[in-house]
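Researcher: First entry.
Model:
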Amino acid sequence: MNEARNAERFESDRCWLENQPGMQPWDHGCDGLEATLERLLEEYAAALHDRPVTRDHPRYLRYIGALWQCLRHHWKTACDAHARPVGCGEVVEHLRGGRGFRRGKQLGGNPLRDVILAQAVLTETEENKARASTRRRNGNGGHAERASNLFAAEFYDFAVRQAGTIHASLARRPEVWWGTFLADLWGYRKNGRGKLNGFKGMCGLKYWLGTVVKNFARNLMRSRNAAAGNCIPWDDASTPEPSDRLAPAIESTPRWSTLQRVVDDSLRQMDAGDQALLYLRFVHQISQKQIAHLLDVDPGNVSRKETGRKDRARNHLRTNIVRRARQSDAGKQCIEYIESTWRDSRSSRFGDLLYASLEKRARFVYGWLRDQLRKRLAGESANTTRRRQVDRLLRRNDFQRLALMCVEARHGNTALAATA
């Protein structure tokens, strides 16, 4: 009976699976594969349950199905990569070490273990929602949220660092958004289906989560639902010093400080409009079309200026560090660091430096942008109401409304603002 049930589970993959080592005869191979999945389940579910997850366990079928989907993907990838039959044990050992079979090979963790953790979190979410989110004591050890707590403890620091690469305030005050992020991820919001349902073990949970949390952070900043501390008024004496606004991921080593000073100097040499363009684009994730309206430039020039100014800052950095390398050992270490870790201007390490330098220029950019928008939207006359409106929207970081006002002012027709 069990042999027939095991063969039925793998029947849809028989065309390629029966040619792999250890899968002949077919029924015997299916039994061995099922036993391998059960051993993996017993190993990885031990931290989530006080008793073994056997066939009579309510979560058994869900766990086994997720494990097989993950193993199947990587097994087929291994066969395609090697152009030869590959044994199940070889695939499992690769995955245990966080190594895949495609180009790059690193998976960012053990996907077999991670799919079990993900399914355990989703199951706990469904059970809690079915009981009106009440914490219940069950017969499996009395920990209805053990997997959820383990997930949060393991990935909290990593997620905060990733969010900090999008906007420093998110790393500075994670308590503002962490609960909302978990609710979206686990499925307590958005019609009950969480983003974690999309994790199938194609890579490690860490790599997958990094992408998800960055997208969440971008959407959060675009919707202006972040903490009130995100607003950086240009004339507020309580504005924190630039160093207090940097994400924790920024290094504090001497060579990093040297690189940072050079990028700061490069930004100061740019004109105010270019600094504003980079600040709006990188710090606030404003669209190129809205930036064109705010700065009164052609939309086609925004992309060219963005790329050109980034390259200028990077070239300025390289030129200065090369000169310093001739003068000191610290300079030599910096240039070796650049050559070994940065490949182009899109490098995350260069992005960290540029982001931090732009944050330091926040007060200057806001002041310049305020003056320009006052002239364009309020005119030369003393239209105090309009000037106050500009100031208020800037304090709120409501750049979308300011862009609409710029369209209205240019065309003199409010109906055209809908095209912004």
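Researcher: Second entry.
Model:
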Amino acid sequence: MLASERRQNYLMMSLAISFFVVLALMVRWGGIPDVSESKFWLGVAVLGSTLVVFGGLCWWLFFSPLPAPAKNHSAQLTEASYVMLLAALFAGLLTLIGVFWDETWHRIYGFAEVLNDFLWAPHKLLYVSLGALTIVAGMSLYQAIRADRSDVRVGFRSHPYIGMFGLVAAYLMFSLPSDQVWHLIYGLDITAWSLPHILLLTSFGFVMIMLSAVFLSGERSSSLSLNNVFAGLAMGIGGVMLLVLVTDYDSAAAPVTQVSAKVVQTLAERPQWTYPVTMVTLGVLLATIGVRLSRRFGVVTIAALTIIIFRSFMVAFFNASKEMGVVSHALIVIPMLIIDAWQLLWRKKDEQPTMRFRITGVLVACASFLIVGIPVINGWLATYHINNESIVGAIVVGVIMSVWANAIGELFGGWLTSLNSGRLPTVPPTLLVRQFAVSAVIAVVIFLVVFFTAQPPKV
């Protein structure tokens, strides 16, 4: 093994270990239910083992030695594949709307101990959208497998983006029952940082990132194309879902009145720097992956604008300003826009930016976020403030986590761009717009049917 490959393996192993450390801290700070700590961590270990199994499956499909090299199947994907991708995009959007609607109604009408929410309107929308995503995932997996029936690994490596998208979407569907089982054993989640929620949210975010990668595969246009726009929308949808991880903090905004005392207590027990550090980490991670995949300015900016516009529109549409805030979605835009714009300063367009250049951009983004974010957090959130002692922690940990997020984003994004992916078909713009419009109309009709037939629950 070459020294460079050995260093790469050590780096991947170190980042993987650090990921599990961060995951364990988040779960611990998410609040422990009214059970013994040993029983709680046993459940965490059992559920966390699914990540190990999934990681092993990914290694076998994409990295394990093959008897013979995989054939080159980098021909363009079919137009049917493109329709499938647009369907996944709008299924993801409907899922996002369902999650927002579900959380809004829970804050208005209560939780499972006071109502049966299994068949209420937000869940119906979630069932339809996740069902559509499941169908698309199944079709994606079939397309990956059928490339070479003699060895399924050859099929996945022939169309890795499609294969990975289907695989992660399948894992997302597999993870859904785990949330219900967790509730049956441990009761209601105290905060969004329960392990099932973290796995579901990150899985959905990963599905949207893979969808963005497929839209960007083979994209070499010098101008901002429709594929770039679709990729930015997909990444923005994933970013909104990931920000559910900080929705507990958003509920501390001044207009929001429906805040659980137990949530406030749990947030108070965490280090005060966790909120800004979580946001800047997510922002740097999304921006780094987006820049690495797109290799151009604009895609990450579209994703950032999607995040703030979607949240603001949902709060206004559902008249939910007393239940839901927009602080996190406004602040995460800062590091994303800066990292996206930073690449414009790199003059050697035929070369990848150096590590020094990238880290400098990350530090500028982190500093800008903290300079603007901490005063906004202290001025906007009524029940959560970062005191002077915690500002030092926010700066130190924020810088460390920003560099960490950039390293993971570079490693993951670099791996994705190195894959031998099938290219999207060259679809005429008129047909592309027509396909997009048809998908949009179907999504709107589904939402309107569910929305106008919705009945508030009986408490």
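Model: Note on the second entry: The chain has one domain: 35-452.
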